Amino acid sequence: MIDENVKLLKKVGLKITEPRLKILSLMQRTSVQHFSAEDVYKWLLEEGEEIGLATVYRVLNQFHEADILTRHNFEGNKSIFELAPQEHHDHIICIDCGKVFEFNDDVIEKRQKEISEQHGIKLASHSLYLYGKCADIKNCAEKNK
User: Fold this and answer.
1) Rounded distance, CA 104 to CA 140, Å?
2) N or C: which end of the chain has fewer CB within 10 A?
3) C-alpha of 112 from chain center
4) What are the φ/ψ torsions at residue 66 (nearest 5 degrees)?
């Protein structure tokens, strides 16, 4: 995997550095799909890595600019990242615990295209964020603690 990551960083024009390689590897290994810079920093500390929070922010921003990551600014204007998705999807976010659910719906996609065309817009890209509360309030409250 290290060789693949070296190739990826070279391909997008980023210098090969230890922090970049460690952060990229960590993001690829985690089962968490959506994460903040603080999450990455915490995971690095748990693995005994001494990479500062400012470096984590800088690397995540560089990865976003290089299209390795996608940045989302969900409610509260906190940046959340995910590895650049292979397929388009939309998000539902719990306003209590912050959990993010991904979904894709062909009917919604079709309607967005139709509505854009009705307004004379050729849709280039879009993001759909839906906000609500988890149906399982007990588990949601426990995550919030």
Assistant:
1) 23
2) C
3) 23
4) -90, 5
Q: Which two tokens stand for residue 17?
A: 């550095």
**Burial class (CB within 10 angstroms; exposed 0-12, middle 13-18, buried 19+) of 44:** buried
Q: What is the pTM of this model?
A: 0.72
Residues 39, 27: contact at Cβ < 8 Å? no
**Would you give the DSSP letter of residue 35?**
B
Q: Report helix angle 18-29 to 2-11, nearest 10.
A: 120
Alpha-carbon distance of 56 to 48, in angstroms, equals: 15
Candidates 56, 46, 59; CA nearest to 12 is 59
- Number of helices (H) and strands (E), helices first, in the chain? 6, 5
Is the CB of residue 56 less than 8 Å from the CB of residue 44? yes
Q: List, for the chain, all residue ranges whose pLDDT scores fall below the cut of 70.
A: 1-2, 5, 75-77, 141-145
Contact yes or no for 100/81 (Cβ under 8 A): no
Beta-bridge partner residues of 69:
83
Tokens coding 109: 């996609």
pLDDT digits (tens, 9 = 90+) for 32-53: 888 899 999 999 999 999 899 9
